[in-house]
Amino acid sequence: MGQCVTKCKNPSSTLGSKNGERESGSKSHGKRSVVHKDDHGSACGKSSGDILVNGTKKADAAVESSQPPAFSGDTKKDSVSSTEESSLQRIGELFRRYKDEREDAILEEGMERFCNDLCVDPTEFKVLVLAWKFQAATMCKFTRKEFFEGCRAINADSIDGICARFPSLLTEAKQEDKFKDLYRFTFQFGLDSEEGQRSLHREIAIALWKLVFTQNKPPILDQWLHFLIENPSGIKGISRDTWNMFLNFTQVIGPDLSNYSEDEAWPSLFDTFVEWEMERRKKEEETKCVITSSDTEGLCEEQT
Q: Three-state DSSP class for 143?
């Protein structure tokens, strides 16, 4: 999504009580039958009260009547299975709407139409969050597996369904542990897997840092990005270690950088940044002093 991001269970309990009543009634009726038949005798030598009209023993009938219907659980399973199947069919229809004609995946053109139907810009934070939930391996691309498993993960099988999930997804992304997972996903997401990249191009890294910190921008971010922009020749790419450690940096080091120590195990690029930023701030203060001094002198001359 390079262009997309940088541009781009027991129902028988009630039945059991009813069956119990019936069973009790049957037993009392059986007793009356036995007393009546004892006067006349039985051809087989057994009381006919033990046998129902259909030839079934009363004890067996009582056991059978106290058990829930054998098909009740199967009906539930069939219902769930039918619902899941219908949902999978809708996901399949949605995927086919945007998939490429030649490749079994949604590519850049299809992704733009997909985002358009979702009423989001391909460069929005929402798209990054969606890609995270889909566990997409490449920018501007959803494979069939990613799309199906992603839709099931967010419990949505339509455009309206996905749109309705955005608020909860954005809230989820604010949680510390979830954001850390999203943040680390973003680095891998920005790599060109086909080229076997192991570090992010500086421009891509800058765009992704701006994007991933949309909801919780750290105070030092602007200065960090300014440093990366102003030093293009000395920064060819951003490694995974540097990317991951920057999140720790924003959480541990204060905006004034006073508690930063080169003796700690920070990437060397952070040492360079802190030195550069402190020097920049020093020059900025000196410039302010000169301007303030000049304004004061001018004011004094006017008063004289």
A: strand
Bridge partner residues of 143 (DSSP): 105
Distances (CA, A) of 134 to 51, 88, 119, 152, 204: 64, 15, 18, 9, 21
Exposed/middle/buried for residue 278 (C-beta within 10 Å: 0-12, 13-18, 19+):
middle
Decide: 167 and 129 in contact? Cβ < 8 Å: no
Summarize pLDDT for 64-112 with one digit per residue, the tens.
444 444 445 555 556 568 888 999 999 999 999 999 999 999 999 999 9
How many other CB atoms are there within 10 angstroms of residue 130's CB atom?
A: 22
Residue pLDDT, tens place only, 26-60: 444 444 333 344 443 433 344 444 444 444 444 44
- Predicted pLDDT of residue 36: 41
Task: Give which of 143, 149, 239, 146 is closest to 187, Cα–Cα.
Answer: 239
Distance of alpha carbon 192 from alpha carbon 109, whole angstroms:
18
Q: Rounded CA gap, 151 and 144, in Å?
A: 11
pTM strictly above 0.85: no
**Contact by Cβ (8 Å): 91, 147:** yes
CB 133 within 8 A of CB 154: yes
Give 174's contacts (C-beta < 8 A, 6+ positions apart).
215, 216
Give SS3 for 138.
coil
CA–centroid distance for 121 within its chain: 19
CA atoms within 13 A on the CB side of 30: 18
